[in-house]
């Protein structure tokens, strides 16, 4: 998802926040990574463009962009946090812990799960980017053979 398909600068300004040089560069670096880019990958891209941006600035900026729902974060099967540009529609990922294959699914597949959690626990999940790890069809077949 490209951050150029939405006016993120306007979205920040409309919410009363400044569009700083660092915020623009971090958005660019997340976008360049495509889906699920790690802090290390983002930081490496930033260092090529502006070596004065520190790791602490990166973390603060990612936290800010995540709270504004301009960037989404997710835990990968190996326990790392990854980031991607927020899409217009919520989506989720199925990630194979054996081969790393990733499949994107829409919100309708987990909608019933969220409704059941709300019904049983009175808890309304607001997660719009869920990563489920497990075994893909191919790896399950290889394991069974």
Layout of secondary structure:
Elements: H1 8-14, H2 21-32, E1 37-38, H3 39-49, H4 55-67, E2 71-75, E3 81-85, E4 92-96, E5 102-105, H5 108-121, E6 131-134, H6 137-144
Helix pairs in contact: 2-3, 2-4
What are the main properties of this structure?
Arc Repressor Mutant, subunit A; Dna Ligase, domain 1; three-stranded antiparallel β-sheet; globular
Tell me what you see in this structure.
- The mean pLDDT is 86.
- The longest helix has 14 residues, at 108-121.
- By secondary structure, the chain is an alpha+beta fold.
- The N and C termini lie far apart (38 Å).
- 45% of the residues lie in helices and 17% in strands.
- The strands form 2 sheets. The protein has a 3-stranded antiparallel beta sheet. It has a 3-stranded mixed beta sheet with strand order 5-4-6.
- It is globular and about 50 Å long.
């Amino acid at each position: 998802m490209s951050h150029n398909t939405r006016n993120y600068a306007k979205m920040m300004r409309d919410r009363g926040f400044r569009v700083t040089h660092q915020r623009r560069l971090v958005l660019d670096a997340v976008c360049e990574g495509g889906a699920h880019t790690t802090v290390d990958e983002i930081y490496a891209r930033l260092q090529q463009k502006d070596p004065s941006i520190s790791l602490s600035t990166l973390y603060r900026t990612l936290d800010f962009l995540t709270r504004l729902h301009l960037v989404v974060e997710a835990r990968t099967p190996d326990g790392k946090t990854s980031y991607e540009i927020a899409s217009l529609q919520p989506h989720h990922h199925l990630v194979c812990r054996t081969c790393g294959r990733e499949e994107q699914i829409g919100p309708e597949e987990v909608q019933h799960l969220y409704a059941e959690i709300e019904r049983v626990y009175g808890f309304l999940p607001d997660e719009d980017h869920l990563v489920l790890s497990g075994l893909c069809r191919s790896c399950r077949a290889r394991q069974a053979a």
